[in-house]
Amino acid sequence: MKLLNSLAVVLATAAGGATRLAPASIEYNGTTTVADVIVKDGHAYVSVSSVAKMLHASVEKSGTTYRFVPFDGARQVEGDYGKIGVPVKLGDANITVTDVFVGSTYKHKFSTGDESVDGSKQIVAVSIHIQNTLQEKVVCSLMGGDKTALADTHGHSYGPGTFGDWENRAPFLLPGAAVDFALLFNIPAGEEVKDLVYQMEFVAAGKHKTARIHLVK
After folding, report:
1. What is the dihedral of CA 129, 149, 211, 110, to 10 degrees?
2. Which of 183, 191, 193 is closest to 141 using CA atoms?
3. What's the pLDDT tens digit per position in 54-111?
4. Are strands 210-214 and 80-83 parallel, antiparallel or unpaired?
5. Is residue 95 a contact partner of residue 137, using CB atoms and an 8 Å limit?
6. What pLDDT score does 182 carry?
7. CA torsion 41→47→53→56, rounded to 10°?
8. Do the beta carbons of residue 89 and residue 50 sit within 8 Å?
């Protein structure tokens, strides 16, 4: 497969015959992911799941065949893919969706107050944990960048509300520090959520990487 050969070239190394496991950055078409690479006899090996992540695809195994199946709408947003409870490592930050609430009344978890809507709407509250992995202090805009949106199963997208569940919408994060908060969305009643697209926004640091996180448990 031409694509896999290209990845192999990126991973090529001059290491000797010893076997070792080391984290490495893998790049393809401008997208970067971090994976554990096994180096043996001068060759680098990376897991099938890591390759699938680069391709924005899932993996189906049939006998000795591994099939890469693109996610629906994968070409809509460039970025790393993830799921609830699993950190997405963007290089500048780690982002984890910890919980998803859907209902007509939401009680804040990270600040005081509550939200409610009428019967034509429903509230979707996506709880997020962000850790600064840079070696510098940053200001993190919790609203995210322009690409931040919630996608439903019918292909509709919704921007977050101006007021989220947080104490400070742009906190300072020291190296290694983290923040927990929730983005709030109002969407039509009956629609089913599918993905969160979240664009990191480290103000003044010029960091704007994007993650697409599957919200179906």
Report:
1. 0
2. 183
3. 666 666 667 788 777 655 444 444 456 889 999 999 889 999 999 999 999 999 999 9
4. parallel
5. no
6. 98
7. 90
8. no
What DSSP letter does each residue of 16-37 carry, written as one string?
Answer: -S--EEEEEEEEETTEEEEEEE
Whole-model pTM: value is 0.65
* CA 29 to mean position of chain CA atoms: 18
Q: Are 191 and 156 in contact (CB under 8 A)?
A: yes
CA distance 29 to 27: 7
Tell me the torsion sign for CA atoms 176, 110, 86, 124.
negative
User: What CATH number has the domain spanning 75-214?
Assistant: 2.60.40.1240
Strands of 41-79, DSSP E: 43-46, 57-62, 65-70
Domain with CATH 2.60.40.1240 in the chain: 75-214
